[in-house]
Amino acid sequence: MKGLTRLALALMVAALAACASKSTRPGPTVLEELTPTIAGRQVWTQSIGTLKFPLSIVAAGGNFIAASDDGTVYAWRADTGQEVWRGQADGRLSAGVGSDGRFVSVVTRDNQLVTLDAGKEIWRKQLPARVSSAPLVAGERVFVMSVDRVVQAFDAIDGRKLWSFQRPGDALTLSQPGVVMAFKDTLLVGQGAKLTGLDPLRGTVRWEVSLASPRGTNEIERLADLVAPAARVGDSVCARAFQAAVACVNAERGSLAWTRNVGGLQGVAADADVTVAADASDRITAWRTASGEVAWSVEKLLYRNLSSPLIVNKMAVFGDVEGYVHWLSTADGSFKLRLPTDGSPVVGTPVLSGTTLLVTTHNGGLFAFRPE
Predict the structure, then answer these.
(1) Which candidate, 79, 168, 235, 370, has a CA 20 to 30 Å from the CA of 85?
(2) Predicted confidence (pLDDT) per residue in 135-182, tens digit
């Protein structure tokens, strides 16, 4: 109980520190006039109500799968926005969604892991700690990492617990979605500033790599947990360590390729050419994915509370605090297109299915765009 209390207090202190830093933050940079150099349009929209948890949307099987704060889970056709099915987790959500296209898993605020098949609940399990990272559903297994960094694996068909991975950790952990992803036959999870490769069948460690060296005089300043999303490009996986670094590792060998000390709160996107992310002041930087060399930097969106990015068709896509969606060339950072949503902040990460890109806003608007 003492450890849990310390964890709760530490998370509260971190939240208060974040709020204090925002109070001194300058206002959003005024957007410059933009003449689009590519065409794009909104093709459909849906509303799921105000979001109070970190929604992660999955694109699978030609569908977008999402969930609302009240526990309703939806699947829509990516090209038309037509509802395919909906289900209910029977509880307000803290994390989700994870899906392989068939099974869909979410976590409620009372720490229940709920799994559905085509919108129908098939099992639920009580978890021992709060979860803020979306579950990963892969290989007929559901992998869940709680805020204390404990990783558990369940059978996706019947909910049977398969294994649990836990190591001694710091009392202070980041209450923000962390890295839980697949790489070939390895499960990748963030464990503080380390990226750890686990055997998904047994939960044993195959390798681990430190992406950053936490610095600071107290536990808050030393927070360097890996934050989602991370990006995979071939054998490389690139990720951000909270307020500490952006780095890429060779996930086949379990070795560090490069790391760059840079502050920031959101995840990264990458392709074979560049790895892109915004720092704490929303300066956007692109590093060469192969070497970590800076390719370009853009300061025209400073203090606009940018979302995590997505790279698609040689463009980096960011949402901002006023609901605008920005397309930048990954070649030089030039602006190609800007489209509005509902005026509330874009949250989470843009998601692509086919030629349709979906963004989510704080007010629960889902906006599907099709650049041309």
Answers:
(1) 370
(2) 999 999 999 999 999 999 999 999 999 999 998 766 567 789 999 999
Burial of residue 53, with CB atoms counted within 10 A of its CB: 0-12 exposed, 13-18 middle, 19 or more buried: buried
CB 143, CB 187: distance < 8 Å: yes
Q: Does 144 sit behind a cis peptide bond, omega within 30 degrees of 0 on the bond before it?
A: no
The label of the residue with tokens 């509303």 reads 47
Q: Which residues contact 245 (CB under 8 A, 6 or more apart)?
A: 193, 211, 212, 224, 259, 260, 261, 262
- For residue 9, the surrounding DSSP H or E stretch is helix 2-23
- Other beta carbons within 10 angstroms of residue 3's beta carbon come to 9
CA 320 – CA 74 distance, rounded (Å): 25
Can you give the pTM of this predicted structure?
0.92
274 close to 330: Cβ distance less than 8 angstroms: yes
Q: 194-198 and 186-191 as β-strands: parallel, antiparallel, unpaired?
A: antiparallel
Q: Which of 321, 312, 185, 327 is nearest to 251 (CA)?
A: 185
Q: What is the pLDDT of residues 190-210, one digit of tens each?
A: 999 999 999 999 999 999 999
In this structure, the chain runs to a length of 372
Burial 164-176 (b: 16+ CB within 10 A, else e): ebeeeebbbbbbb
